[in-house]
Design goal:
The protein has 408 residues and is α/β, with parallel strands linked by helices. It is 29% helix and 26% strand. The chain is globular. It comes from Marssonina brunnea f. sp. multigermtubi (strain MB_m1) (Marssonina leaf spot fungus).
């Protein structure tokens, strides 16, 4: 029997796209099948700029996907931080309402930048060398050609090819900002984030909406003397303070620095891209001096994130050969992201379920992707609404994690 090549285009080299590529590249393909994967990423650099933050991988979702794909043992386990799961929740007067000690029994903490670099290098395991420098594991990609990721490839639209004779649909064709057009894909996976171009092909009417919350992030460098008093507040993990419809957060990163976030409410995104540190501090004048000092101690110019979400009832329309994962499929509310870190966890769970659907679908005689893409597991993969998922599953997960009350 001749070999068949199954061509998959993954749009976006973020957590969802990288995890899907890892899972497929680490899996044994079905007999007489070659799975040809290409990731298209619009960034001009190998390392996409990411928010400096730490990610909590949950045992039943994100971490489960990593372990199920055989990616956990070895170097990944050495990138985790044992103290990162410590948590303190307090009010604006710095009165503690809840505290949890660090434990490797539940969530596993890892810096987002290290997580992404680990995933990217996993596809090229035979071309990667690992070095330990000053006690820290460094992953260096030494592959020089045949890259799985095509950088500077900004997708601008997806169109449907002319159907072949006898078929009612055509396969997806990708148009890039450079003018390049590439077709012939069995499956296109939109892992291109909240402002997904792939999603517009499935439903052009749905765009993220402003949540009413903007996040301003300051960093206290590891070399700063301010860490002497600030670090004990988070005990190696995270602190969240709430009051007056606002919030201040602090999170310890693997490099020893501290990320400080100020969350403010607006009816619409401020016209000015960024408020100054003094303007932000005026919003917290009635707060504890200790919490205000976290903002004062950060570097002068904050990073700004105007947080958006998809409509609660969003469902995308099925079109053959195209599906979505990660934030492209279910851009979640900032409340959920703030408390549970579900964005990356759901992205990994999406990738795991989709990889299994692809691997199990090919051997049973899928001559085209149509049958796979029309199956419920793929066409509506993790197509959650906020009302059905966020306020039940995540709340229960938090209760289970910290043994608060009845989690059933």
């Amino acid at each position: 029997m001749s070999q068949r090549t199954f061509k998959i285009a993954i749009i976006g080299a973020g957590p969802a796209g990288c995890m899907l590529a890892c899972l497929l590249s680490e899996s044994t393909p079905p007999p007489n099948t070659i799975i040809d994967i290409t990731i298209f990423e619009g960034s001009a650099r190998e390392y996409i700029p990411l928010e400096r933050c730490s990610v909590k991988l949950h045992p039943r979702s994100g971490l489960a996907a990593i372990k199920a794909g055989g990616l956990y043992d070895g170097y990944f386990s050495r990138l985790e931080r044992s103290d990162g799961s410590a948590l303190c929740v307090c009010d604006k007067d710095h009165k503690t309402w809840f505290r949890a000690k660090a434990s490797m029994e539940g969530d596993h903490e890892i810096d987002q930048s290290k997580l992404r670099n680990f995933l990217y290098n996993t596809f090229h395991r035979d071309k990667v060398r690992h070095e330990e420098i000053d006690g820290e594991l460094m992953i260096r990609n030494v592959r020089t050609q045949g890259e799985l990721v095509r950088w500077r490839s900004r997708l601008v639209r997806v169109v449907e090819e002319e159907p072949e004779e006898g078929k009612s649909y055509g396969l997806p064709m990708l148009h890039f900002g450079s003018g390049e057009v590439i077709g012939g894909w069995d499956l296109v996976v939109g892992a291109d984030g909240g402002w997904s171009v792939t999603r517009r092909y499935l439903d052009p009417s749905q765009e993220p909406r402003y949540s009413g919350i903007s996040k301003y992030v300051f960093n206290i460098p590891a070399s700063s003397n301010n860490l002497d008093w600030a670090s004990p507040l988070v005990k190696g993990g995270s602190l969240f303070a709430f009051g007056e419809g606002k919030s201040i957060s602090a999170q310890k990163l693997g490099d020893g620095s501290l990320n400080v976030g100020a969350f403010l409410r607006f009816d619409s995104p401020p016209l000015s891209q960024s408020l100054t540190k003094n303007q932000i501090l005026t919003q917290f004048q009635s707060w504890s001096p200790v919490l205000m000092r976290l903002i004062q101690s950060g570097q002068s110019v904050p990073q700004v994130y105007h947080l958006h979400q998809l409509p609660e009832d969003f469902r995308w329309n099925h079109r053959p050969g195209v599906t979505l994962v990660g934030d492209a499929a279910h851009l979640m509310t900032p409340t959920v992201l703030l408390f549970a870190g579900e964005s990356v966890n759901l992205a990994f769970e999406d990738a795991w379920k989709l990889s299994q659907a692809i691997l199990s679908g090919i051997p049973v005689g899928f001559e085209t992707i149509e049958t796979v893409a029309q199956s419920e597991d793929v066409a509506y993969l993790l197509d959650y609404s906020e009302s059905e998922y966020c306020y039940t599953t995540i709340t229960k997960a938090l209760l289970q994690r910290y043994d608060i009350g009845d989690s059933t």
